[in-house]
Amino acid sequence: MRLNKVVWVLIVMLVVAAGMVSACGGAAPISTEPSEDSKPAATPEPAEPTESSTEPVEEEEPTMAPASADGEILLQERCATCHSLGRVEQTQKSREEWERTVARMVGKGAEVNEDEQAVMIEYLVEVYGP
Fold it and tell me: Is the whole model's pTM more than 0.70, yes or no?
């Protein structure tokens, strides 16, 4: 008789857990980025300044990905939707030629704003320049 109670408790717990997962939108999407759970627990949180603290607390600058990484991502996300990246990889152009090419692609409908164009052109010149 005691075993039946344990089984029922486990079944109720599973149903509740399944309901919580379902209510939260299902399973989390797979990401290549480290999650909050996977970060080491030993990393201390920065201390909040107190009234007795005489030293100013320095705020850390946000880290930004290098322009080359951003340019590569933009190239993959925006250019490869219409054509293979092989077309780009087989080409060597000057800055002016890449600027004209990117402008032509935007004219054909590539969704790249001005800031993204600058990053992409910088990447193209760096990697696929003469």
Answer: no
SS3 39: coil
89 with 81: CB under 8 angstroms? no
- Biggest distance spanned by C-alpha atoms of the chain: 82
Q: List, for residues 70-94, the tens digit of each pLDDT value.
A: 888 888 888 888 888 888 888 899 9
- DSSP for 60-109 reads PPPP---HHHHHHHHIIIIITTTS-THHHHT----HHHHHHHHHHHHHTT
Alpha carbon distance 91, 32 (integer Å) = 30
Residue spans per domain, the chain: 67-75+85-128
Q: Which residue has the tokens 């164009």?
A: 117
